[in-house]
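Session log. Operator J.P. requested a structure for one protein chain; no other inputs attached. Running the standard single-chain path with C-alpha cell output.
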Amino acid sequence: MLRPMNAPPEPNVPKEAMSFSTHWKNNSTVFHSLEKKFPHDGKRPFPILMGILNATPDSFSDGGAHASPAAAVRQALRLREAGVQILDVGAESTRPGYTPVEEQEECRRLLPVLDALAAALPLPLSVDTQKPGVARAALEHGAAWLNDIGGLSAPGMLAFARQGRFPIVLMHGVGHKLDPADPQPSASIAEWADRLLPRLKLNPSRLILDPGIGFGTTREQDAGILANLKPLVDVGLPLLIGLSRKRVVRFLHPQEEIDQATARLAWQAGQNGAAILRLHNPAAYAAFAASRKRPS
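Structure written below.
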C-alpha cells in the first residue's frame, strides 16, 4: 500500500492513500485533467482508454504512418471517434533493440505534432518520453501528462517532476529490471513501487503505475503480470496496462488476430483492476467489450 509522502498536499487532495475509485470521486490531479476536457453527469467510463499516437519514423506498430502533424491529427480523430479519452504521443521508438535519439531530434519530431493536436482536438495529451528537456518542451506545447518509461530515473527528470503538478505515469522496466527468473513479477514490481514512492516526494494523487509489459520482462513474466494484477492494484495508484500489440499477445493467443487478442487481454485487465488501458486500436477493444455485455 502507499506509504505516507513527505511532499505537501495539493489543494483539495486528501493526504491519505486512495484507491482508484476514491481518486475518481475526489477529482484527483490525474482525473481532474480529464474532467476539464470531458464535463460529465457524475459517471465516467471505466476504464479510461488511452490512444497511442507515434510520431516516429520507425514505430514497430505503424512504421511512421502518423509522423507528420496532418497525419497525426487524422489518426487522433479516428482514435477519438473510437472512444479514447487521452492521447499518448511519443517521438522515440522504444521497441526491442531501439536506438535512442538525441533530445533535439525528438523535439523536432514531437513539438509540431503536439501543436497540431492541441489546436485540433479537445483531448488531453500525454507525452511519452524519458528526457526532461523533451518533457518540459512538450508541456509548453500542449501536453498535460508525462508518461515516463524510465520511471523518473533519468538525470534531471525527478527534479523536473517536482516543479509541476501534472500527472505522471511511472513505468517499471527501464530504470529497474526484473530478474529473468523471478516467478512473482507482479509482487516484485509492487515492492519496487512501494520502495520508490517515498523517495520521490511527489503527491501520490499525481501518480499512475505501469508495470511495463514487455520492458525488461520475459514473455512468461508478462503473462504472469496479466494473470495477477492484484499486488499492483493494491499499491494504491491507478494502474495503467500497456500490452497493445506486444509479444505477450502473440504468446498467449498465437492464432488470434493481433488487435482482437489485444482487446481480449485488455478487457480482462480492466475487469481485474486496470484503471487505464493504452491501445493502438480502441475500436477493437470497444467492440469486444460490447460483445461481453450482450446476452448469449
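Operator note: The chain has a mean pLDDT of 85.
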